[in-house]
Amino acid sequence: MGWFLSYAVQAWRAPFSGRAETDWMDPGLYVDTARSLERAGFDYLMFEDGSFIPDAFGGSAKWSLANAMTAPKHDPLALVATVGAATSRIGVIATITTTFYPPFLAARLLTTLDHITDGRVGLNLVTSHNVRTAQNHGLVEQIEHDQRYAMASEWMDAVSALWDCWDDDALVMDSETGVFADHTKVRRADFAGEHYRTRGPLNVPPGPQRRPVVCQAGGSPAGRDFGARHADTIIAQAYSVEDMKAYRADIDARARAAGRDPREIKVLFLATFTFGDTAGRAEEKRRAKEAVAAASIEPKLASLSFASGIDFGAFPLDEPLPQIHTDAAQSVTALHLRGTDGMTLREIASRRMTGAVEFTGTPDGVAAQMGEAMAEAGGDGFLVQAPITRRIVAEIADGLGPALRRRGLIRDGYAHPTLRENLLAF
Fold first, then answer.
1. Is the pTM of this model over 0.85?
2. For the chain, first and last CA: distance in Å?
């Protein structure tokens, strides 16, 4: 189990959200969350990120900033050390863009964080789909989609070469001979590819994991190939158990083609939850949420604009949507528009649009549904997709967590000290 979240505004207008207007900036909110989830037996928290303010919808940043949609947002890498120091077993994964982080900077930073967290850090790799991100980093236009993934694969090879510069026994630390590190066991990387060059070696010794856990969430063919080759855990979007099963089978096939054992790649599917004291009450709450969502057109249009980089506010609401082609987040856009041929934009925006599997019921009933879904799909687990409020965290950590544990679906302790070992153990 994991939780997909942002170092950003958390449900600031929702009930029981406290001082959400400012609490989201307080590391204590995430520390408390991590401790609760560690008590519940979660594998990791995964902080997504993006280095731009969305301005596609309506042609400006007005809607995004007024509604705190993905902005403002802090850099989650700064949060890793704080959360890591306050916990002992749960993993902390933060997002890095392969397109704009130099391999040496990333390899050194993640190794440092691996030491600070005692081997519990991971990096979520993205290629940065938005043109504004590219412009913030000095480009005029964003690099073509599949080219970004080709660059990302080479980037990963460069970072891996840097992580391999030190032998396991390079640190001698012999006070009698006065030798701290054996220079013959520290080599240059001398990586030279089409897009990246780095000499090495790193000036920091390997962390407890040597290679921090690699997370990836690409859903396009290029993204799936990248994840199958490099990732230790993959975040997947699906609407149904059938979608989950098809995705897992596809990743397994791609992993085998890349010479990897698919069991080494832990696929977690995004999931949303509606809980109630009874199944009937939970269903009432779900229907109420759906009614509100169906009447809320603008958030859906803004979400589609964010993923595609195309202003969906410029299309007539009551006419069929034309064919959409994007070089941005292709898989997310395609998932949201799947099965909408001939539908008007209003009809499309009235549908559920989360990219997550939905569970409704009592905590024990939901735990049973999750177990059945995963047994059918053949995946590894779920990633909670919800903002952080103390009420939501309590529902998951103190309600769902014990129900999962009673069914043997989640660990009752951590057998190992590092994130990678614990991922592979369960």
1. yes
2. 10
